[in-house]
Amino acid sequence: MARRPELDIPMTRDELAALQKQFKTMSEGAIQSFYHGAYRRCQFVNRVPTARSIQELVAVWKYMRSWKQKTLH
After folding, report:
1. Does 47 map to a domain?
2. What is the count of structural domains for the chain?
3. What pLDDT does residue 72 have?
């Protein structure tokens, strides 16, 4: 019997907010590690990334982008 593909369920607004709060408690190294993991999960290697994976990548990218904006001002 064929295996069912993993459900592609995006994160809710509450889950995204919780992830963003979690970033504030993480060290810079942990944030960078999270980013690299999210980036790997979003690569198009034999499959299309899930919506959740893309949301995680965008959320951590936005958080890291805010660091650069703070240093420029």
Report:
1. yes
2. 1
3. 73
Average pLDDT by consecutive 10-residue portion of the chain (73 residues)? Answer: 67 97 96 97 92 97 87 71
If phi > 0 it is left, if psi is from -120 to 50 it is alpha, else beta; for residue 5 that is beta
How far is it, in rounded angstroms, from Cα 24 to Cα 40?
22
Quote the CA–CA distance of 25 and 20 in Å, as a whole number: 9
Q: What is the DSSP track for 2-69?
A: PPPPPP-PPPPHHHHHHHHHHHHHS-HHHHHHHHHHHHHHTS-SSSPPPHHHHHHHHHHHHHHHHHHH
- State residue 4's pLDDT score: 55
Amino acid at 28: E
